[in-house]
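worker-03 picked up job from queue 'complexes'. Input manifest follows; three sequence lines, order preserved.
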Amino acid sequence: MKKKKIILSLIAIILFFSLLFILNSVFNSHQTRILRLCGIYVVLALSLNLINGFTGQFSLGTAGFMAIGAYTSAILTMPPAQKASAYYLEPIVPWLADIEMSFLPALIIAGLISALIGFIVAAPVLRLRDDYLAIATLGFSEIIRVVITNLQNITNGSLGLKGLPNYTNVWWSWGVAVVCIIFMALLINSSYGRALKAIREDEIAAEAMGINLFRNKLFAFTVSSFMAGVGGALLGHLMGTIDPLMFRFTLTYNILLIVVVGGIGSITGSVISGVIVTVAMEALRIVDGNIDLGFMVIKGIPGMRMVIFSILLMVIILFFRRGIMGTNEFSWKWILESKLFKKRKEVA
Amino acid sequence: MEIKEFLQHLVNGISLGSLYALLAIGYTLVYGILRLINFAHGDIFMISTYAGFYLMSSAILPWWIAFLLAIILTCILGILVEKAAYRPLRDAPRISLLISSIGMSYLIENLAIVFFGGRPKTFPIPAIFDRIITIGSVKIPTLSFIIPVITIIILAILLHIVHNTKTGMAMRAVSTDYEAARLMAIDVNKIITFTFAVGSTLAAVGGIMWGMKYPSLIPLMGVMPGIKCFIAAVVGGIGNIRGAVLGGFILGLGEIMLVAFMPALSGYRDAFAFILLIFILLAKPTGLMGKNLAEKV
Amino acid sequence: MAILKTENITMKFGGITAVSDFTMELEKNKIIGLIGPNGAGKTTAFNVITGVYKPTSGHIFYNKENITGIKPHNITKLGIARTFQNIRLFKELSVLENVLIANHLRLKSNPFSAVVNTPNYVRQEKHMIEKSLALLEEVDLIDVKDEKSFSLPYGYQRRLEIARALATEPKVLLLDEPAAGMNPQESNQLMEFIIKIRDKFDLSIFMIEHHMQVVMGVCEKIYVLDHGITIAQGTPHEIQNNPRVIEAYLGVE
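worker-03 finished. Artifact:
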């Protein structure tokens, strides 16, 4: 059975990438951009779900860690000449001026620096009562923006960085997403994943079962920060431009929406909802502009899209609290026994 | 630094502290009863400044009627938010309630962007508040006196209600033990509605005074003060009204003095609150005036 | 030899003294009881022993080692496991997962080995599953191993809590009102069960219980708390005839 599952999963992954290949060649540039965004949001949703959904610690710091990742990777990959011209208010510090590396190491360093900062922040904050964590992480995420805005000779301050190498193609975006999905599935189904879920269910009982609360929470927070950093880096290299305003807490809210829609505590849910919500966000851009019905034009209301999204978040949390998947997961066993559907991705 | 300058900063810090205190009380009351960080509270505060702005701009109403109407509208909004977003989740896990409050906050902000527009608006200050008095060589706007005075009056009324009226006693009962209060035939829902009404009213009073002191209005203006005032409430000891006031003043004075004495760090003004939070909670997890809220095992 | 011993532990919360000068001794392989009216401080005493609270004063010894002030998870690791008065299962997780989680503390690996499935981790995981299944078999819960734990009937939940505590491989087991809510017949089964696990797992047991039938039936020694103070200790027979105990339970006008 286990061998069979692995083979099925491998086939699914191959099929999925073949599909990506086809989509990538038939889609226009706008559509592939959305496809790339989907992969990034899957990574970000998994990051937030790991700490909020699986460990039960309500963190709202994702946007801050994304900013760290995006800036780290941008500074590491931009050619020296471009940096020299971008930092016109104050030149970049010498030790960063001449660095230029390829995407993979930059991406990994981006994740590691986010993880390191996540670790440093979490160590004091995780000792606090649970709901203070939400405020402390939200505040921390805003502090990161303040720091980035003020570190003129490292981040170029409020001017932001333009012309990031356009590395995030479909393969990078979804390649990272698939690695994250597999990693999460393996982690959550391991003994360590069970320990995290135990903390979510009942901290006092978990501790009485010999689970070190602090160490496990710290681990989840650090891994989550790593993933957020990588996701942020991918987003930066997709947008091509980053600035401190891009990483406001509202970005975290958007990712929270994806997690809630998919189901708090479900990997499958985060993946499905990451795709659905991203596509819907783009599709709903029409309500912000004018809609031409041929015989008449409905005037668009700028900002309406986000209103619809916040209403959606409220409706889901009030009436469909479990989201699409609840805490359930896709599994091959379920597929083989029901034989109703055929799905492409996911690992049992 | 000259004594004159210091006095100006002090007065500034006290009036900012007063505004923080008014907002912090709303957080502390709601947290005391529902154990909920009401993320929408900062946005309710924002709405009150816009309500004041539009009612004043209509230019038909005298300023005091405009302000009173703005406060009443904000109070109603606060009650509606509770009824729509929190009441249906009374028995849901706390995380759902927290997400609901974030969703509500997000919704109000996005509606504000659509209806009020993203561009800053200037709050029209009634002439009566727009004077400057000179003491010796120190020039101080009258507003800097009016704000703390109004805050103190409101605080006195609130403390009277909480300690000397039946409703206040019920509020304290619900806050101490929700279930027991329910069993004692206290109408918990009514008390919660009342709490939100009080919190929103205070936020509105604070919001309108904020509008006069810092007249540039934008739809996201409530977010930072909101988060900071929750921190003020935690620093003072969550659930404790006097603690919230203390926290508000520490924060207001701290921020102003940080900028005054260390101008190089002025860019980091917004970080002050969070650093204060972490230090206070590590040193005294229940806040300066808080009681122990340990979970029963 | 005493496997678990407390010396004059006192626990104060603010101005209230929940437990005062509590001294007890649990001999190896014995079953002893802790009784007293509601609010007497029994659960607080358990919480102090298991590290949930650090005592205001006094010491706790386990195998002569001073364990006062050690964190709860480390106390469990040393070999003291407990159950809870108000049942604290991992509700959304399956019965098997509940027991597996209690095995986690004996795992010698790290998260990354677990993710990449190193042979060492795979071997330990396999062992954990076999051990948990055997334990569930032992306590007659094997048929419901895949049910979510909150969906179990009440009696099963109590038994699962004990099984979960056993999975941590304890030497001392602290049971907080295991017979709460049980009828006489169920209580009888529970008594047999407690004696059975004591023998099978080489345990020493300290239990809080209200059901006198259970306490008197299995305990060799009983401590009586009232308002945090130890008002009596002795064999079941001595306790039954102790005027102070009768007074504490029935009240005196």
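worker-03 released lock.
The interface with chain C takes residues 183, 186-187, 190-192, 194-195, 197-198, 201-202, 204-213, 219, 327 of chain A (CB under 8 Å).
The first helix of chain A runs from residue 2 to 26.
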